[in-house]
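Please describe the entry underneath.
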Amino acid sequence: MFTANRLTPKLKLPYGQIKGSFSQRQNASIELVDKFYKKLIPEFNKDNKISINKLQEVVDSFFEKKIFVQAKSCSNPDCDGQNDIFYSPYTGKINKMTIEIEEKNGFIDIKNLTTILHEFQHVSDQLHHPKFLAGEQYLTMRNLITKEYLDLIDDHLYKRESLFRDETDKENILTNLLNKLKDFLKDKSAEESILYIQDAKNTLLQEAQAYKTQRKYAKKLYKKHIKIKRGDLMNQNKAFMFDEKIALLKKLGFEIINNERQKFKEECNKLHLF
C-alpha cells in the first residue's frame, strides 16, 4: 500500500503482535477471541444479561483504549449484530471500528453472546491483518466503493446459497458468479480489478472465520446448557460456499495477473528489450 494509505495508530497493534505468516497471525487472532470469551462470559449477570457499558469495558481492557473499538446498540433494526468502520472527516482515513449488537434497554441477552464473538472476530482479524482495513481504505480514498460493487458483494458473494443439492448445482452457482464478476470488472483496469478481487476475497475470508467462531462457541455454550440462537450450530460456511467462492476469486486474480504479464512480455518483444 502507498504511504498515504497507512492506517492510523488507533487501528494498529504493535508489530510484535502481528508479525509472521498469515496463518500465524490468524492463530493469534483466534487466540485473542478466546481470551475475550473467557473474560466476557463471567460478566453476564444472574439474568444472563450484560450491559453495553460492561461490554465496552471488557473490549477496552484488551486494547487499553489505544485502539478505538466502540460497543453499541445495532444501528440497523433488522440485524442482530454487525461490525462497521468509520472514516475521519478530516483525514479521510478509518479512525474507528464498532461492534454493534441487538439490545433492549441497554442490556444484551446471553443468546447474543455468539454474535458478539462473531463481531469481535472481525475486529481481531482486521487488527491482525492490517491489509484488510488498508485495502478497504484505499478503495474508499479512490472512490471505488460504489453501489455496483456493494451490490456485487451483497447479492452474489456474501449470499447464502440455499438451493444447491449436489456438485452440479455448485458448478452452476460458481459459473454464474464468475460471469457476474467478469461483467463487473470488464470496464476496470487490471490494477482496479486486482484491488476489487483482493477486497472481496478478504471480506469472505473474514466472514468465513467469523462464522467458524460463532459455531465453535455455540457448541461450547450448548454443552453448558446456555441459551443460544436457533441456527448457531449450523455450518453457515457450507451454506454460503465461502471456500469455493474464495478459491474462485483467487483463480480469477491469478488469471488477470498472468494476462498482464503476458501483455508486458509481448510489448517488450516488440521493442526488442529482451
